[in-house]
Amino acid sequence: MDTTKSFLGLWYVRGLLILALVGLVAALAAYAHLTIKEARYSNYGPTTINVRGEGEVLARPDIGQFTFSVRAQGDDAASAQEQSAEAMNGIIAYLTEAGVAENDIKTTNYNLNPRYVYEERACPMGSYCPPGEQRIDGYEVSQMVEVKVRELDNSGDLISGVGSRGATNISGLQFTIDDEDDLKAEAREAAIAEAKEKAEELADALGVRIVRMVGYYEEEMYQPYYGMGGDMAMSESAMARVAPNMPTGENEITATVNITYEVR
To answer: Which distant-in-sequence residues (6+ apart) come within 8 Å of 61 by Cβ?
Structure first.
């Protein structure tokens, strides 16, 4: 009887050990599988594809903008400023009477500087002659103004008008859109749609499926303008005779997006 109990006890212990070993092996296998999986993603990460989409919207501009300067010289600072003010006030009065709002006329630069000359001095021929003494020979005022034009058909007349009233360096005429938010959103939506279509085509070609979006980047948008650029300084007689025609064309609003998708 004691021998039988000892035999059964021995097999019971062996059974427990076997079960413990089986459990340990299973735990080790599960841990190894998890470790390998984590290592795979840690080293390489999930498989992804990256696509680029572009969208554009064309729209006619609704606002124009140009700059001009007024320059004046005088024997002293006060007289130079007075001459500049008289010319500028006349131009601004003309723009206001022509329908340009006061908040669409803005001074962007104002300078009052002395003008210098060097006194001549007699020097022996063939010898070094240092420059003469510098002295102030009057003052010069320069004021630059930026004008927004909301009635685009009047652009040519306004440019001609300020030129005939003493403005110089009339430049930088450009036609833009005052509020582009809705147009930018429309262009972005088209860019995203194009990127999605490219991603689906690429996934089909690779034999994988798209799981989710994991990255998005929108490139900075640059909006070219269409209009006249550079200096357009003209003589008073030319400005008075002909008002230039100013075609506005169309502006292109663009958006470019980069989207990354996880695939399996």
So the answer is: 152, 175, 176, 177, 225, 226, 248, 249, 250, 251
